[in-house]
Amino acid sequence: MSPASGTLKLHQALARYLVESGTDVMFGLIGDGNLFMVDSYTREFGGTYLSVAHEANSVLAAIGYARVSGRVGVATVTHGPAFTNTMTALVEGVRSRTPIVLIAGDTAREDRRNLQNIEQREVARSTGAGFVELRSERTWLEDVRAAFRQATIERRPVVLNVPIDFIWRDVAWGGPYPSAVVETEAVPSASALNEAVGALASARRPIVLAGRGASSAAARRQLVRLAERIGAPLATTIGGKDLFAGEPFDLGVFGTLSTDATVSAIIASDCIIAFGASLNHFTTAEESYLVGKTVIVCDRDPGRTQSSSPNLVVVTGDAALTAEAIVEWLDEGEIEPTGFRDRMQLSSAAATVASSRAAPSAPADIALPIRRVYDMLDERLPDDCVIVTDGGRFMPLAWQGLHVKHPRHLVTTVSFGAIGNGMGHALGAAMAEPDLPVVLVTGDGGFMLGGLTEFNSAVRHGLNLTVVILNDGGYGAEYVQFEARNMDPDLSLLGWADFAPVGIALGGSGRTVATLDELGAVLDGLSLSGLPTIVDIKLDPRSIPNAMH
Q1: Looking at residue 1, what is its pLDDT?
Q2: In terms of CB atoms within 10 Å, which end of the chain has fewer, N or C?
Q3: What does the buried/exposed string (b/e) look like for 393-418 if buried means 16 or more CB atoms within 10 Å of the residue's CB?
């Protein structure tokens, strides 16, 4: 930059804006449309750039980073096929309501014969992502800030489209520029609080439910206080898993993964007050857990609520502020606690949740039963590790059997129902928490689809990543469909090569596990701060439960 002229090239201005507004890491794959911006971001302005092998994983890594850090993730790709390669990842970000900005190069406006020309706006629109066009060198700052503002407010990916013919144009620089959006606390209205408190006053058997949108320390504190005030047990969605671990009336996960004791408590309840939870059909068991109950939804964006309960009360507001205000109103109204959790002896239900974390005994010399695998992983992995789960038949058992210190440290990757998204998320999670070990739990099919592509990326960038592959030799979900109809499942069995030597060949390390003794030895000797590691656990596809219990 020339201090006298106050100008930068557009690619420099964009890179400098990212660094100075707080984007400390960017994920991507370079090409004609973005290579000069990435070069400026790293070489001129000191930004950290994690390069991937496939464009989809740049977006998935940005999603993983945002999910763990709570900040807007940033990714970049070039135009045409590079951009279309991100479509599945963009849908995942939209469905998981994760704020990221994807800076996409685009072909020059006058170059309609370019082989890579495509209407990128239409591609983005088909995924549900937002789209902001960088219109000119005069509007660059307005357009960039609009993309970050939209991603933050709407909680979804936004594509910032940058035509290649703009990147060497001079633009005015008057920075430094602060972040485009400062989120304020959403205070619930008096009328909404009045309706919610009235519903709680009529309840006799309430449950306090927390989702990922209520996982902050402040929200936890106020929700525990509210539960004590109204005499309610506590529960979470998968997105809020383990938020209330250690509380005496913690029911664990509310939904299709609930323990029998938790299901009994849900059925007995007459009111669910949910904070930061979308109440999707997994949480509500296709609405069956809400029948006949009053449902109070407290959320900054209650429009995302998926419940169609006829007894719905909606409160727009921050989880912590809303819970705090409800307690104050209950106190002013001198409304007595329900005593529900004491009458139902729900401490025994919480004990059941806690005991489900203890490992049952099993012979050490038998083939690996998957539940025992999860027990051993939960016992021996560090308490503070970040766990990322890919998609596959193993997934519900992973969510039941593995525990984390904070809900943000459990990263699920199946909002679009796809396998192979786990490794991309894990790269971003590792950059968000560089001092913590990250463990990716994936199936063999998911690893071959998306994990193998990026294992060397983890090696190149020195990430603290362990990849646990639950290897049943094929596609398990398809296997069970063949088996259920008494058909030959061989079409779903693919006979992969051993993955441990692949990990070594790609610059990391690898271990193969075929018995519980071997698994115990590997976990005891596992270094979670050295080279990225593959742990290839051999499973029998016939031995994996098809149901969630």
Answers
A1: 40
A2: C
A3: bbbbbbbbbbbbebbbbbbbbbbbeb
